[in-house]
Design a protein that fits this description.
By secondary structure, this protein is an alpha+beta fold. The protein is about 35% helix and about 25% strand.
């Protein structure tokens, strides 16, 4: 996947494993560090959740709290201590060593709006990239007491109240049998890149607005067949890409490109991906038998 994330159109665990760039031991070492960083982030997140927060508005009109900033500072400091040559791409503090071969994508609190309002669907996302190809992804949801993680060739996993288990995408192959998830219906409709959004959800068996990282986790677990979002940044997509692909699914932008910086994202179980993309593009893009 050439930086910033362009690659082929395959899917499935074997295809995902073929994207590995590094040894099993190296990737497991990165994963171990990412999990420890998420442990620290979880503690900070839980300590501030449903407490008095200092909420500031950033220039892009999104919100940030002292918890977002504290989590990203801790993560950056610890990565720099262990891997001083690794690059960092974070939501709150930007890019450091952007030309490094190995780069960490940091979303300290995905779904900050939920966090601010006391909704437990928020989490820390960490993605690790080598030479433009994502290798490790972790999504940790402290209030939900769940975590999803994957590494190339190692499968996708969930760890929660029911222990640790390997997760896989569903085998549903008909849109009429599919559960479709999305972030903001308003954003999807007004983005200009998904003119067929309403047609897609109307054709699905069931649709729900389970947004942010949790939608990708549900696709990876086989609880839903697709997750559709717009208005995204690279740190929103980096970790879900690895988790969804290692679970057997596919993740692209609306044009079908494996990008983490395109602003739009479509994750699926793989079997329905082209049908979903065609629906989203509008009447001219619908496959005859979709």
């Amino acid at each position: 996947m050439d930086r910033p994330g362009v690659g082929g159109a395959g899917f499935g665990p074997a295809w995902s494993a073929s994207r590995r760039l590094g040894s099993e031991a190296e990737l497991r070492g990165w994963l171990e560090l990412a999990m420890a960083l998420c442990d620290a982030a979880d503690e900070i997140g839980r300590a501030h959740f449903r407490r008095d927060l200092i909420v500031e508005t950033k220039p892009d009109r999104s919100f940030v709290t002292q918890a977002d900033q504290a989590i990203e500072r801790v993560i950056r400091e610890r990565i720099a201590d262990v891997h001083p040559g690794h690059g960092l791409v974070g939501e709150e503090y930007g890019v450091e060593q952007g030309g490094a071969s190995v780069r960490w994508y940091i979303d300290p609190i995905d779904a900050t709006n939920n966090f601010i309002r006391g909704v437990p669907i928020f989490g820390t996302l960490l993605g690790i990239e080598r030479d433009g190809e994502m290798q490790v992804g972790v999504m940790s949801a402290p209030a939900m007491r769940e975590r999803w993680f994957a590494w190339r060739g190692g499968g996708a996993w969930s760890r929660g109240l029911d222990g640790e288990r390997r997760i896989r995408t569903s085998a549903v192959a008909a849109l009429s049998d599919a559960q479709v998830l999305y972030g903001s219906a308003h954003d999807n409709r007004t983005s200009g890149v998904m003119p067929g959004f309403d047609d897609l959800v109307a054709a699905a068996w069931r649709e729900r607005g389970f947004g942010d990282f949790w939608g990708y986790a549900l696709v990876a677990e086989g609880a839903a067949e697709a997750m559709v979002e717009t208005d995204l940044s690279s740190w929103d997509v980096a970790a879900p890409l690895v988790v969804v692909e290692e679970a057997g699914g596919r993740l692209t932008d609306i044009e079908g490109r494996r990008r983490i910086d395109a602003g739009s994202c479509v994750a699926s179980n793989g079997h329905l991906h082209e049908t979903i993309l065609a629906r989203l593009r509008g009447p001219d893009g619908v496959e005859p038998d979709a």
